[in-house]
Amino acid sequence: MSKLYKHIHGITLYRKFRYRKGYGVHSPFIYSFITKVVEEKHSFYVFDEIEKFRKKMIADNGLLSDLTLKETQHRNYGALLFRIVNFFRCSCVIQFGGSTGIMSLYLTAALHGHGCCYVFEKRKGVSCMVKNFLKDHSKNNLQIIETEYANAQDILSYGAVSADLIFINKRSLEFSEAEKIFSSCLSLAGKKTILIIDHINVDKEMKDLWQKIKNHPKSQATLDLYALGIVFFDNNLPKKHYITYFNYGKKQNIHKNRRRRFNFISWRKKSFKNKHSH
């Protein structure tokens, strides 16, 4: 087991006992959000449909398969995005860094009314399979825009878009891009807008950016889930930072050797048991 994995596992284990279920949170709004959204475990049928699509993409064993393994978050993470959109009845969602589109589907599945999810991805062709998925399922509430992220604000402001939720998917962005996107998307953030930023604890640069976001005059309540950060801009909320536990799952392709070693031990135990039972 790597030192990094031990370190991360130790942090998440500590959070699980220290911060789960809204322990120590005195804000009724944040407490309700933690207990009814973050801690909620109810599954929806659409999750299985999206995960089947993920498996199909991974099975292709090409560039899109590699990107899906490297850049796409776990089912638990997608389910949280779905619950946030559903809980706040979001109708306009903006995602920066769409990658192969798995998290975009989770965001889109919970949209209310005639809502739309606008996804910006600068790399050409990486969203081709999710576009086919949308076509096959006759869905038109997800718009994937392949352009440089610097052009995104112009496109959105031209359409006079006001965002209910903004998701900065750092996993498929460079640090400099994530930093610029945060600064530029503040003009799209209203009082009720929710900002979600991924990978806030991945390295020193992202930790510094998260600190900058927390201290920004426009940010009010902020929530650290270790894998991601959530920002509320509602000035009726006190300016305060909260920490909570969230089981964000593991990446699909890490610790393969560890799992294989565990299975080998299990096989040895089973073989020994069978041998001595005769």
Describe the protein's architecture and organization.
This protein has helices at 3-18, 28-38, 45-59, 63-71, 75-87, 102-109, 128-136, 149-158, 175-185, 204-215, 256-277, and strands at residues 92-96, 116-121, 142-146, 163-168, 189-198, 221-224, 228-232, 240-243. An 8-stranded mixed sheet has the order 3-2-1-4-5-7-6-8, sandwiched between helices. The model is unreliable at 1-8 and 252-273 (pLDDT under 50). The protein has one domain: Rossmann fold. With 278 residues, the chain is of the alpha/beta class. The protein has 11 helices and 8 strands. The radius of gyration is 20 Å and the shape is globular. The two termini are 36 Å apart.
Q: Tell me the name of the CATH homologous superfamily.
A: Vaccinia Virus protein VP39
**CATH topology name:** Rossmann fold
The first-level CATH class name: Alpha Beta
What is the count of helical runs?
11
**Into which percentage range does the β-strand content fall?**
15-25%
Number of strands: 8
- Cα(first) to Cα(last) distance is 36 Å
- Number of discrete domains: 1
- DSSP helix fraction: 40-55%
Gross morphology: globular
The helix-strand sequence is HHHHHEHEHEHEHEHEEEH
Oligomerization status of the protein chains: single chain
Mean residue pLDDT? 82
